[in-house]
Design goal:
Length: 132
C-alpha cells in the first residue's frame, strides 16, 4: 500500500507544471492497529511470566515493544543498560536513611494513635497474657 501511494504521488508531481525538477516523495501507511495501551493486568502477567522463568527477557521485551511501552528511539540494549545502571540505586536505603524513615513512621503512628497488632493493649495485657 505504501509503495502504491508513493508511486501515485510521484507520478502526480511529475505531471505538475509547478514542480519542474524532480522531488522525492515517500508515503507510508500506518500499520499500527493497536487500539489501546497495555493494561496494568496484562503488564503484570508478563512480568510474572518473566520472573517465574516462563518467558525469556527477549520475549518480554518484544511484547512490550509491540505495545509501544518504550520511547521510539529505545532498543533492548538501551533498556538493559538502564536496568543495570539503576538496579542498585533505585530501592537501596542507607542505614541512616532507613533508621530515619523508621523513626518517622513510629512518630506518625503515635501521633495518629495507630498500634501494631503485636503491641499490648493499654491495660498492659494482650490476648495471650490474659489469665482465665
Amino acid at each position: 500500500m505504501s509503495e502504491a501511494c508513493t508511486r501515485i504521488f510521484s507520478f502526480m508531481l511529475d505531471w505538475s507544471a509547478k514542480y519542474s525538477q524532480k522531488i522525492g516523495v515517500t508515503c507510508g501507511v500506518n500499520t499500527d492497529f493497536y487500539e489501546d495501551d497495555i493494561s496494568g493486568e496484562e503488564l503484570l502477567k508478563w512480568i510474572q511470566a518473566y520472573q517465574s522463568g516462563g518467558i525469556s527477557y527477549d520475549t518480554f521485551y518484544h511484547n512490550l515493544e509491540k505495545k509501544e511501552a518504550f520511547p521510539s528511539n529505545w532498543d533492548k540494549g538501551k533498556e538493559l543498560d538502564a536496568i543495570e545502571r539503576t538496579s542498585n540505586t533505585m530501592f537501596t536505603l542507607s542505614d541512616e536513611k532507613f533508621t530515619s524513615l523508621s523513626n518517622e513512621i513510629t512518630r506518625l503512628k503515635k501521633l495518629l494513635n495507630i498500634k501494631d497488632s503485636d503491641e499490648p493493649e493499654e491495660d498492659g495485657t494482650n490476648e495471650e497474657n490474659v489469665e482465665e
